[in-house]
Design brief:
By secondary structure, the chain is mainly alpha-helical. It is built from 17 helices and 6 strands. It has helices at 20-48, 70-81, 84-89, 95-128, 137-159, 170-195, 206-232, 262-265, 267-282, 300-312, 326-331, 333-346, 362-368, 377-380, 387-402, 415-424, 442-449, and strands spanning 288-291, 320-325, 349-355, 372-375, 406-409, 428-429. The chain has a 6-stranded parallel sheet with strand order 1-2-3-4-5-6.
């Protein structure tokens, strides 16, 4: 017997509307968020023009007034000449060229001060006129203090490049960038809460919230990885992707010591991580399958590189499938079992490639705990004409399904073979029917095709 809950007219499903005062506060905060967004853009221009170290002093008040006389400009230029960056990169710079980079940094700093004024003055006015709820005042006051600390963090970053380096510390650069993004998100969050109050009974399902949260975290990690690429000047190291100088993973990926510093101090690692993370963030349903050799399973350098990447970028491991050939699996199954366990502990999945070529048993598959079986193409390519191959492949698919192991059929040549495999319950196919292997990224092409045309 089923019960039906009575309709309750006291529960409203109509979105709450913000009061006029809340809307005004929300519009002000949206304006502050827009100014922070523009601030990040100006900071990017400052970085690209190598202007960040052109002002060598921190004067929060007096620094508002720019140089006005030739003597003022000469003094600022002399300060810049005293730091290592000038001697290493800009030794031939003229005073006119210096004025250009000085103006970039000056606008960057001035805009930060304007954000502070644009936040503080309306904040006090809203409090005075009682348009701002007193319960919200502490939260906004904390945001104002964090904005001031962001300015101090910016100087802390600049200071790292004035003595022993020719550029700022990549760690301080990323901290400065992430602090700005965190402040932007926090202000935007408060503004959205005020301008668009939550709808009663209309919260997003937990799965949607988790997916969106994961995507946001991945985007922030990608942003941080981009900061390290900029800080290390690693952007032009390899100019091809997905293969980098012919390698899936560049050979000089793991050069830092200790190994866990590779994503932050190795140029190749920083560039590789950023590119892969950007692909994963832009296409949440794309996964990476990595086919490894027998030597790789015992290579400490490979482990150092893969573990440093997984530690630095949580969530990436779950989208990684490591493929091991069956012949490797049956050579030393006990040693391989430890390798598989380490990877699965990170959340990665394991596939046995060319299954059937070595005639290993499903008992070994259970012992290894593999997630995917790729059926060797030698048995798949003739299933339309060979009764023996049909029986063998169909039996493998049936056994794998009973063990909750996904199956991939290799070397699928035509629609007739694909139909047989689909009827037998094969999960995935690959081969000439789908497309030959190449360096193109079809998901990128689909993403570009979905963008609106511009005239």
């Amino acid at each position: 017997m089923t019960s039906i809950a009575p309709f309750s007219p006291s529960v409203s499903t109509v979105p709450e509307s913000a009061s006029r005062g809340e809307r005004d506060v929300a519009l002000w905060l949206f304006g502050c968020a827009a100014m922070i967004f523009l601030m990040v853009m100006i900071g990017g221009g400052t970085r690209l023009t190598e202007s960040g170290l052109s002002i060598t002093e921190w004067q929060p008040i007096a620094g508002v007034i720019p140089p006005s006389s030739d003597a003022d400009w000469t003094r600022e230029f002399d300060h810049y000449k005293a730091i290592p960056q000038y001697r290493a990169i800009h030794a031939s710079m003229t005073l006119a060229e210096f004025k250009t980079i000085f103006c970039w940094e000056y606008v960057h700093r001035l805009w930060g001060r304007l954000i502070g004024v644009a936040f503080a003055v309306p904040f006090l006015w809203f409090l005075w006129t009682r348009r701002l709820a007193w319960s919200l005042a502490p939260k906004l006051a904390v945001l104002f203090v964090l904005g001031g600390l962001q300015g101090a963090l910016g100087w802390y970053m600049v200071k790292s490049g004035l003595a022993d380096r020719i550029e700022v510390s990549q760690y301080r650069l990323v901290a400065h960038l992430l602090a700005a993004v965190a402040l932007y998100i926090a202000i935007l969050w408060v503004a959205l809460d005020l301008g668009f109050p939550r709808m009663s009974g209309h919260a997003a399902p937990p799965t949607v919230r988790r997916a969106l949260t994961s995507l946001l975290v991945l985007a922030l990690i990608t942003l941080a990885a981009g900061g390290f690429v900029a800080g290390l000047r690693a952007g032009y190291l390899y100019n091809t992707f997905p293969l980098m100088n012919g390698y899936v993973v560049p050979p000089d990926y793991a050069t830092a010591n200790p190994w866990y510093l590779n994503p932050f101090e190795s140029l190749a690692a920083a560039q590789f991580d950023h590119r892969v993370l950007a692909e994963l963030a832009a296409t949440p349903n794309v996964q990476l399958s990595l086919n490894i050799s027998p030597e790789t399973t015992m290579d400490p350098d490979w482990w150092a590189g893969i573990e440093s990447t997984m530690h630095a970028h949580p969530g990436v491991a779950e989208r990684l499938i490591v493929e091991i050939t069956e012949t490797v699996a049956i050579q030393d199954i006990d040693d391989l079992r430890g390798f598989v366990t380490r990877l699965k502990n990170y959340g990665s999945r394991i596939a046995i490639d060319d299954f059937g070529a070595g005639y290993t048993s499903f008992r070994n598959l259970r012992k290894l705990g593999v997630d995917i079986v790729k059926i060797d193409g030698a048995f798949v390519q003739n299933i339309v004409h060979s009764a023996d191959d049909r029986a063998f492949v169909q039996t493998l698919i049936d056994l794998a399904r009973r063990l909750n192991i996904k199956t991939v059929a290799e070397w699928v040549q035509d629609e007739e073979a694909a139909k047989l495999l689909r009827d037998w319950g094969c999960d995935y196919i690959q081969g000439r029917l789908i497309g030959l292997a190449n360096g193109d990224r079809p998901w990128a092409s689909r993403r570009e095709a979905s963008l609106p045309a511009t005239g």
